[in-house]
């Protein structure tokens, strides 16, 4: 049965990945949740790997895999210390995950993603914009506080995250305003998304 991913911002990334001549092997950094975006790549014929630091979303992803008979290879790990060798992946992404960390840890994680990407490999990451209205403080018992030491979402000025792509050619940079109804609530989100190609 084909699963429809809710990670709509990733479809353009998948299209670009499909045009690449690199081996179809992809890493999701922050891969947990009830409907893992990795399923989109699995169904497109990719060899998938994912890392997730938090217990609950990791368990949800594993349950999804069991119910849908998909082996997405999602493990408990930290994107600040990605447990894979240099240049192992043709493609890597972090969808709605990296901004749970502090900005210094985001810099480390972006360096780690670049490390595990092959030359010419593609990377997708989205960041919360400074214009995003969600500036709440995380509760002390949340995984963000316990595991990541962060107190709120990291939010970025329009060009602030450009520095993470010094070793990339930026293929796409887009600021997106999203206003949607989700679980009976009106959600407004402002994201800055990047797709970069690692320099040869």
What does this 3D model show about the protein?
The mean pLDDT is 94. The chain has 200 residues and is α/β, with parallel strands linked by helices. It has 5 helices and 8 strands; from the N terminus they run αβαβαββαβαβββ. It starts with 9 loop residues before the first helix and ends with a strand. Strands 1, 2, 3, 4, 5, 6, 7 and 8 form an 8-stranded mixed β-sheet that branches. Strand 5, helix 5 and strand 6 form a beta-alpha-beta unit. It has a single domain, classed as Rossmann fold (3-Layer(aba) Sandwich). It is globular.
Q: How would the global form be characterised? A: globular
Rounded to an integer in angstroms, the radius of gyration calculated over CA atoms is: 16 Å
CATH topology description: Rossmann fold
- Under CATH, the homologous superfamily reads Vaccinia Virus protein VP39
Number of helices: 5
Q: What structural class do helix, strand and pairing data support?
A: alpha/beta
Low-confidence stretches: none
Strand content: 25-35%
Tell me what the CATH architecture is: 3-Layer(aba) Sandwich
What kind of sheet is the major sheet?
A: 8 strands, mixed
Helix-strand pattern, N to C? Answer: HEHEHEEHEHEEE
The tally of strands reads 8
Helix content: 25-40%
